[in-house]
Amino acid sequence: DYMFKLTVWEEATRIPLFIHIPGLTAGSSTTDHPVSLIDLYPTLLDLCGLPDNPHGELALDGHSLSPFFEDPDRTDWEGPNVALSVVFSEDPLEVNTPGDVDKQHFTIRSKRYRYTLCGNGEEELYDHVNDSSEWHNLANLPQFRSIKASMKSQLLQMTGRIQ
Fold first, then answer.
1. Is 0.85 surpassed by the pTM of this model?
2. What is the 3-state secondary structure (H, E, C) of 13-67?
3. Cα–Cα dist 64/43, whole Å
4. Kind of pairing between the strands at 83-87 and 123-127
5. In tens digits, what is the pLDDT along the chain, a chain of 163 residues?
6. Calpha distance 46→33 (Å, rounded)
7. What is the rounded distance in angstroms from the CA atom of residue 53 to the CA atom of residue 59?
8. Rounded CA gap, 53 and 57, in Å?
9. What span, in angstroms and rounded, lies between the C-alpha atoms of 125 and 109?
10. How far apart are the first and last CA of the chain?
11. How open is the CA angle 49-51-52, to the nearest 5 degrees?
């Protein structure tokens, strides 16, 4: 067992997210669509009517979660259909020096699958419908080749590492 959140597995990357907006989110409704914490700031900008790029020329990452307040079951929104998480490699770094992106550990989670690409090139794929504890790595099974390829492509696009 791990005692900290520095892994790319489900129990470390998944967190509960509760949003209450007086007058808009009455009662409780939930969505099972994967979203990322980076979507919180664009959501606040959207809800408060602030400009899209409050920092001038710097483009803002993330997507507003506002569409899910209107319809928690919607499938059409501007954001991705996966949530991205990154865990740093354990390479020693100088203070205030970024790590090598290719050595980091990346994972994306769709409604059904989690795909992980480790800094050393190892891959993991888990089917959360049949294996919610992530015990059985499907990455090397031929019947999951197309799912793994699709998820890897999404991950590489999201991280700017298109191959």
1. no
2. HCCCCCCCCCCCCCCCCCCCCCCCHHHHHHHHHHHHCCCCCCCCCCCCCCCCCHH
3. 4
4. unpaired
5. 555 566 777 877 788 888 888 777 666 678 888 888 889 988 988 888 887 776 777 777 889 998 888 888 888 888 899 998 888 776 666 777 766 677 788 899 999 999 999 888 999 999 999 999 999 999 999 999 999 999 999 999 988 876 5
6. 19
7. 6
8. 7
9. 10
10. 34
11. 110
- Answer positive or negative: Cα dihedral of 72, 129, 7, 123: negative
SS3 at position 139: coil
Q: Are the beta carbons of 77 and 29 closer than 8 angstroms? A: no
The residue whose two tokens read 């994972």 is 107
Q: How far apart are CA 8 and CA 49, in angstroms?
A: 35
